[in-house]
Amino acid sequence: MTSASKVYTDAKSALDGLLFDGMTVMSGGFGLCGIPENLIAAVRDAGTKDLTVISNNAGVDGFGLGMLLNTRQIKKMISSYVGENKEFERQYLASELELEFNPQGTLAERIRAGGAGIPGFYTATGYGTLVAEGKETKDFDGKNYVLETGLVADVSIIKAWKGDARGNLIFRKTARNFNPMMATAGKVCVAEVEEIVPVGALDPDNIHTPGIYVDRIVQGTFEKRIEQRTIRTVEA
């Protein structure tokens, strides 16, 4: 770590002292966009096991969170969309992996609520479906709602476009999904960025996540895979 800053030299050192077996990790991103590629690889290399991972999806086979599935480090996923990962499907159907499934908006709000210190909220989404089984329901003005709990994590690992030594972050486009709210909902937040800029270089009006929510920051290198590559056939 550099003097008087939150900057770490690499993903491994940025996670030093934070990982332990059985912990809960929030991992940002949407599909393969805005995922903390370097920090996920560092968790894999650390061998931390029995993880509960809160993430919109579970990566793809062999990449992103898919790496942690391959090494059997994840015990439970709290997710919304997991349809791109065959290993996830295999482990779940074989009862080797626990899954707490959420409608996507509900998952986002559970994370936001956890970061805001809100223990629970009612939503109409999912009422009368499998999502609501075992949960408290309540009638408000003749409409039924499901009680959902806020989510917090021992560590949040997120990815941003630019950041400074104080941890102020700017995200780009779809990478802004889930990452900013996860920064608030982790007991410790570690951010990886494409570029670390000098303090004062970011326009304060354009900062998406203030540095008060970010404990550690590291500059990474990114593969940025495309989850579903679709190309048009060019007619002769």
Topology (SSEs and partners):
Blueprint: E1 7-8, H1 11-14, E2 24-27, H2 37-46, E3 51-54, H3 66-70, E4 74-79, H4 86-93, E5 98-101, H5 104-116, E6 120-123, E7 137-140, E8 143-149, E9 153-164, E10 169-170, H6 179-185, E11 186-197, E12 216-219
Parallel strand pairs: 1-12, 2-3, 2-9, 3-4, 4-5, 9-11, 11-12
Antiparallel strand pairs: 6-8, 7-8, 9-10
Helix pairs in contact: 5-6
Tell me what you see in this structure.
20% of the residues lie in helices and 28% in strands. The longest helix is centred in the middle third of the chain and has 13 residues, at 104-116. With 236 residues, it is of the alpha/beta class. The strands form 2 sheets. Strands 1, 2, 3, 4, 5, 9, 10, 11 and 12 form a 9-stranded mixed β-sheet that branches. It is globular and about 55 Å long. It has one domain (7-121, 149-219): Glutaconate Coenzyme A-transferase (3-Layer(aba) Sandwich), CATH 3.40.1080.10. β7 and β8 form a beta hairpin.
Q: What are the low-pLDDT stretches, counting only 5+ consecutive residues below 50? A: none
Structural shape: globular
Mean pLDDT: 93
User: If classified by CATH, what would the architecture be?
Assistant: 3-Layer(aba) Sandwich
What's the CATH C level?
Alpha Beta
How many DSSP helices? 6
Q: In terms of structural class, how would the helical and strand content be classed?
A: alpha/beta
> Into which percentage range does the β-strand content fall?
25-35%
As for the number of domains, it is: 1
Radius of gyration: 18 Å
